[in-house]
Amino acid sequence: MSESSSNPPESPTAEATADRSAKTRQLLGMKGAQPGETSIWKIRLQLMKPITWIPLIWGVLCGAASSGNFSWTLENVLIAAACMLLSGPLMTGYTQTLNDFYDREIDAINEPYRPIPSGAISVPQVVTQVIVLLLAGFALSYGLDVWAGHEFPTITTLAVFGAFIAYIYSAPPLKLKQNGWAGNYALGASYIALPWWTGHALFGDLNWTIVLLTLFYSFAGLGIAVVNDFKSVEGDRQLGLKSLPVMFGVTTAAWICVLMIDIFQSGMAAYLIGIRQNLYAVLLILLIIPQITFQDMYFLRDPLKNDVKYQASAQPFLVFGMLVTALALGHAGI
Questions:
Q1: Is 197 exposed, middle or buried (0-12, 13-18, 19+ CB in 10 A)?
Q2: Residue 145 belongs to a domain with what CATH number?
């Protein structure tokens, strides 16, 4: 039997499906995308990595829940949506665009299909996008402060602080991402604590207990952030970036990642027991169990190959655990 008859070419339908899948991944800013997009607005959206907005939007929801003051009125829903717009498309979009700007050299090694190294968008256009997103974020945050009646512009201050953290994370001379511990914690806190504080401040009074608890929870976010380092080990090593997989090796870094997530989530469950929110503590523990199962099934066995599969299977349990914790704190009046 000839080679051509034993290995028939892909059908047009299969090729079209694969092409649509690649374009979707490209638009969302996911690993495994392919070059070729020409629409400047789709390229701009790709720079903002919409897939990364989800944790920040969820964090706002958790903050609203932990405030204990959110009610399902049309006004509150619209204001919460505006806050999610602030944390997701605007401030996270700013952060991701800024990160791509400063990562254009390493992306040329790890992800050459990204918009800047592929030449799909010019550097001046990227700078303009960073400025527009940042100013829009500041304007919206001030509007939310006005709606909430804040004497001190808490949400605007959080937006400015978040923008500063994003800058020192990506830009020299500090470039926190060069240090695996500091960079990943800054990223984890930005994913968990900052949007949580914003949502809580919008509907309640942000207090030190919430601040400290979410900073503690952000160590689990550090574990999440480490997952993103496995796809760029080779480029990080070449450019001298001290990510955890580069510093400790892939296997050890994978264990650090899962232990950070599990230990600090379990710590939150223990805290809920301590404040007599036992039902919520049990729910959180029940969410941690399948998460550990997927860590063993996918991530610990081959973190380089299974990072995306692991995130898709295990992270939903983490984010629902955050909401359970937030509801418990709101119920306890923390």
A1: buried
A2: 1.10.357
